Amino acid sequence: METSIETPIFDERRDQIHRTGETPFAIACNRDSLAGAVSQRACVFCGARVVLYPIADALHLVHGPIGCAAYTWDIRGALSSGPELHRLSFSTDLQEKDVIFGGEKKLYQALVELIDRHQPKAAFVYSTCIVGIIGDDINAICRRVAEEKGIPVLPVASEGFKGNKREGYYAACKAMFDLTGTGDTSGIPKLSLNILGDFNLAGEIWIVRDYFKRMGVTVVANMTGDGRVDDLRRSHGASLNVVQCSGATIELAKMMQEAYGTPFIRVSYFGIEDMADALYDVAKFFEKDDPEIMERTKALVREELSVMYPKLAELRRDLEGKKAAIYVGGAFKAFSLVKAFRHLGMKTVLVGSQTGTEEDYRELAAITDPGTIIVDDSNPLELSAFLQEKEVDIFVGGVKERPIAHKLGVGFCDHNHERKEALEGFIGMYNFAREVHASVMSPVWRFTPRRIKIASSGSRS
Amino acid sequence: MIQAAKEPYVSTTNACKLCKPLGASLVFRGVEGAVPFLHGSQGCATYMRRYIISHYREPMDIASSALSEKHAVFGGGPNLKKGLLTVMQKYGAKLVGVASTCLTETIGDDMPGLVREFKAEFGDLGLPEVVTVSTPSYSGTHAEGFHAAVKALVEQLTVEGEAVEAVNLLPGFVSPADIRYLAEIFDDFCLPVTILPDISETLDGPALDEYQKIPEGGTPIAAIRAMGRGPATIECGRALYNEETAGAVLEKRFKVPLFRRGLPIGLRETDSFFSVLETLAGAQMPRRHALERGRLIDAYVDGHKYLFGKRAVVYGEEDLAIGLCSFLTEIGIKPVLVASGGNSGKLEEAVKAVTSGILGEAPETFSGADFYQIAERSKELAPDLIIGNSKGYRMAKELSVPLVRAGFPIHDRFGGQRILHLGYRGAQALLDTIVNTILDKKQAGSEIGYGYI
Q1: Contact B39, A161 (CB under 8 A)
Q2: Is the pLDDT of residue A331 over 60?
Q3: How far does the CA of residue A378 sit from the closest CA of chain B (Å)?
């Protein structure tokens, strides 16, 4: 029997946790984080910044005191095949006098200075908390500089306190939407799409682009991994928007659908089935224009799988029966991870996200085994208690979750935006399996106090 | 004295500083049973946690009042109080260290007033200590936030009472390994000590079988209360000279004699530090430290040829940069640029002071610098070596100059929390690293493949 350890659940958060099969499905979510709980969430600025960050030939200027820019300097492993302006951190570094007298003049001068220095294709100007309070008219400054410099200068309404990451996603989508519809779409073929919600971490978008190329489909714009301003400007010329990641870019897809009639489909590139489904869905969409596309796609999937399955089977032998916990930013990724672990013969015992919706959690409840803990907007106290209760072998999360796992002698896999291993695509599934394997099978765990305790307290149920 | 040709840039690119509340959060993590708490948006706490965790590889919980739009309009008081209650009840905190952020400073929340109200409303619950510190990030850097939090702890906790034996040591922002070593030195002198803050265990702890809500270790609250009754305070950091610091508060309010010294990096600054201990202990330097000192000088001699005339760029918090500059100068490396994102106004004078006996002309200093400016100037100066935190990696790579990592943060190497900078032992470790870095470069750049160097 698994012993139930007293879990430090905050009373106010009880309804944000669900255990599959134990009660009828119910979960509360999308509410403000509880004051004093150490939420793993960030803020509006963070949401906007992570989405726009990979646009590599744009200037990203953070208007505010230094912190927000310092903490997001080169923060994602979002690679670029060309310019790397996005990897620099620009700030107006507001000082006390700016807070008192306003930061508009400094913003204007900083923008002009940086645009002259770097000659970007566009500039994004991020509002931070105090900009919303001191009342700088960012829109007016952006308009003025855009006119003077002849490039789009886009305000991003990302004052930190105006909500959570999701509002930030929305602000980013709005800024990107302002770019669309401004470029020349001539020469874009019928079989064309935009990739939304992929950030080219560890070069992942290149893997996906290669699949589409082999299918005969042209990618017009990457949104936003390895992204380019000019591609975004003509992205309305694509026939289809393919959207990954729950929250980040879905609003952009909706805006584009309404403005340009561009249809969109939702996909995930993580795991075998989801990756294959993504390609099949795209093939289906274009089948009317190219009847052979499905055959080509099937051949592609077969080819990839024939290489990967034997390798995967080898790793699975070791991993069979191990337990996994998942805590990620968006719930959509969690679906894929649950399925990916199943492929490895592993059981997901905890799954949660920072910003999932009720619908997301309902689906998670449907695809997980009885007893699985489903949690919204969790915190270190809960997560550590769940890890202990469930005797987890590997925890998948972001950098903030890593020390919680390691402290307790639990393996860890970084599936967040700092990862350095490509986890998307068929090859990504193999990389993922290898990383899980490397952590779970390491000899170090047997020396950790927690594992020693578990081992000495007898066999696990 | 040559000043760097400082372009009057308006914008900041790749900051060589962090924001104030980060420094305060680190200090509160170094107090026993304490939870750092940021009064502001959720994002501040999350960003800083991520940044700190990536260096120490330890859990770092920072609570937040998680203000939303309505609080920004009507004031963050209710959320601050609710947050304090949550932290109290769920973490069992003995102390909550509340730092403000630019948001709550700008909307004008009166934190001390709110905390007074909180104590009046919930006084019957057996409240933890609540220490507040004002840390708007639009004025000063994480270094100022660090020292402000140390001062706030002393101002708000230290009380009169019976004399105690413990010497107060305010070491500044140094590594857990440094703090462990400092404690060992005091132990060898048989001098009781209160080190504030003490992150030696809280940010470099052992593997556990049960998750600790608040990591063990940290400066005991009772010891902080008693700091006004100790025999002396040693406060490290030349950028703090003449400032209204915690040490100054203890001196002024409680008449505790204050010894201000630089960060004990390198031989001379460490000698100066040990001489204070000899005075306080009324005893000679214990033999094992005298031996370490002797070995260090021996190593200075053995390594001198590899180092003489080499040119280095140094950056980081002002106190660290000054200490490193002092050390480099005495081993024959010429610091050609000493830069900091901090701007206390003390850098130039302090660099002059630590180099004057050895260098004819003091190194160039650059206060309030960002990495764009440091890189720009470094290109002209063509150094052989760059020393500082890992954020200079991009610049070092561009210049093809080796980077010796020191200070905080170290985000691209393993073991940043265990880097030893202070004392004879720290100087020895730094010396070995620097010599080997230079030899490595020499060896890699030579086709001969020398087996003896």
Answers
A1: no
A2: yes
A3: 13
Confidence of residue A27 (pLDDT cuts 50, 70, 90): confident
Architecture per CATH, B20-148: 3-Layer(aba) Sandwich (3.40)
pTM: 0.94
Compute the nearest-CA separation of B426 from chain A (Å): 27
In chain B, where the domains are located: 20-148, 167-206+214-281, 288-444
Residues B386, B310: Cα–Cα separation, whole Å: 11
Task: Give A196: exposed, middle or buried? Use CB within 10 Å, 0-12, 13-18, 19+.
Answer: buried
Cβ B355 vs Cβ B363: under 8 Å: yes
Which chain B residue has the Cα nearest residue A41? B46
* Most A-contacting residue of B101, B103, B107 (CB-CB within 10 A), to test interface: B103
Q: How far apart are CA B274 and CA B278, in angstroms?
A: 6
- Cβ proximity of B170 and B234 under 8 Å: yes
Average pLDDT of span B92-119? 96
Using CB atoms, pick whichever of B43, B59, B72 lies closest to residue A380: B59
Q: What is the ipTM of this complex?
A: 0.95
- Chain A contacts of B394, Cβ < 8 Å? 74, 87
Instruction: Give the chain A residue nearest B20 (alpha carbons).
Output: A67
CB contact under 8 A, A452 and B66: no
CATH no. of B288-444: 3.40.50.1980
Specify the pLDDT at position A158: 95
Residue type, B326: S
Give the CATH fold of the B167-206+214-281 domain: Rossmann fold (3.40.50)
pLDDT score, position A66: 96
Asked whether the predicted pLDDT for residue B23 surpasses 50, the reply is yes
Instruction: Give tens-digit pLDDT for A226-275.
Output: 999 999 999 999 999 999 976 789 999 999 999 999 999 999 999 999 99
Contacts of B130 in chain A (CB under 8 A): none
E strands in B358-433: 364-366, 385-388, 403-405
- Domain architecture of chain A: domains with CATH: 11-36+320-419 (3.40.50.1980), 44-178 (3.40.50.1980), 192-304 (3.40.50.1980)
How are beta strands B193-195 and B167-170 bridged, if at all? parallel
> Is the per-residue pLDDT at A3 higher than 50?
no
List of residues 6+ apart from A220 with CB closer than 8 A: A188, A192, A193, A194, A231, A234, A235, A237, A238
Mean pLDDT of chain B: 95
Whether residue A237 contacts residue A192, with contact meaning beta carbons closer than 8 Å, is answered with yes
